[in-house]
Amino acid sequence: MIQLIAASQKQAEPILLASWAMAPEALKMMDNPWVQTSAAVVGCYIIHLLIHGFILKALDRLAGATDNDLDDRLVHFLRSFYKLALAFILFLVILRIHGIEVTPLLASAGIAGIALGLAAKETLADILAGIFLITDRPIKIGDRVKIERIGKHWGAWGDVLDIGLRRTCVRNTDGVTVNYPNNILANSVITNFSCENVKPIRVRVRFQLNHDVDIDHACEITRKAIQETEPVVENSAEVVVRSLWHDDGGHMNSGILVEGRYRIPDIRERTRIRSRVLKNILREFKEEKINLASPSIRVG
Fold it and tell me: Residue 254, SS3?
């Protein structure tokens, strides 16, 4: 046994001597800036894998376990932002490895950043607005929203697909995807129909009847026509007389302005259900010989 141990020690001595001889060469290689650059790139990629594979997945699980969607938005924001932060840090590290002073560069970058900020103020405004949309939470992914027209930008009625740093993606009711700059979106009036505390949604239809009509009978016929339409919520239909006077025009209406109100369970079916409601109303009016008011033209 002792002889075997002595023989193995003799065989290991050349290997150890070769390792000690190669150590200075390995240290010299580490002094090479390109080797250090490669190590920095590999290290940055490993950090990326750790963040993407472990940290973000853990945050996703934590966010999914809560009812609040703010944490979901923050995770979505971190997923978009951390790659930019890693790339910027890697860039600074590579500059230091190659002997380039970072402090004067950062000072120059500050001046250049001011000029760039003035040149790209709309982009920066979109990014800041995107952060506010994520934190203020007027909308979230999957919501059915209505965006009012602002200036030359037309509004939309559709579902929110994504909220990015610069743009928010909305798919309108025609199936067309519209990308809104966040700055425009943050300054627009957004109606959110997906809030849990406003379900079912109330919908309205308006029309004018002749002045000589039996208004009580017409309102009752309208209410029954609305209530019998599927899938209007049970006992939600009501009919009111809105006005006889045109407030904006400053004159009498051509007829009695009547408004039918009812509630529906899903706002995404609003247009289809309203079409059925109007068809039922017109059918009942035809059977009961109730005439709608004809438009009048004022001359002078």
Answer: strand
Q: Which residues contact 83 (CB under 8 A, 6 or more apart)?
A: 48
CA atoms of 247 and 158, how far apart (whole Å): 31
Instruction: Determine the Cα–Cα distance for residues 291 and 285; give it in Å rounded to an integer.
Output: 7
> Is the peptide bond between 200 and the residue preceding it cis, with omega within 30 degrees of 0?
yes
The CATH code of domain 139-196 reads: 2.30.30.60
Q: What's the maximum distance between 2 C-alpha atoms anywhere in the chain?
A: 126
Q: What is the pLDDT of residues 61-88, one digit of tens each?
A: 877 777 666 666 677 777 777 888 888 8
- Domain 199-288: assigned CATH number: 3.30.70.100
pLDDT, tens digit, 9 for 90 and up, residues 208-256: 999 889 999 999 999 999 999 999 999 999 999 988 877 776 667 888 9
Question: Does residue 98 sit in helix, strand or coil?
Answer: coil
The residues spanned by each domain of the chain are 31-119, 139-196, 199-288
Query: Can you list the alpha helix ranges (DSSP code H) found in the chain?
Result: 2-30, 33-50, 56-64, 70-97, 102-119, 121-136, 182-186, 215-227, 270-288
Cα dihedral across residues 178, 182, 188, 194: positive or negative = positive
Helix (H) or strand (E) holding 256: strand 251-264
Strand 238-246, strand 167-172: pairing? unpaired
Does the pTM surpass 0.70? The reply is: no
Task: Write the pLDDT tens digit of every residue in 124-172.
Answer: 777 777 777 777 778 888 888 888 765 555 567 889 988 877 888 888 8
Name the residue among 263, 259, 270 with its Cα closest to residue 201.
Answer: 263
Q: Which strand ranges, in their side-by-side order, compose the sheet holding 251-264? A: 201-209, 251-264, 238-246
- Give the separation between CA 153 and CA 184, rounded to whole angstroms: 8
Q: Say how far residue 213 (Cα) sits from the centre of its chain.
A: 49
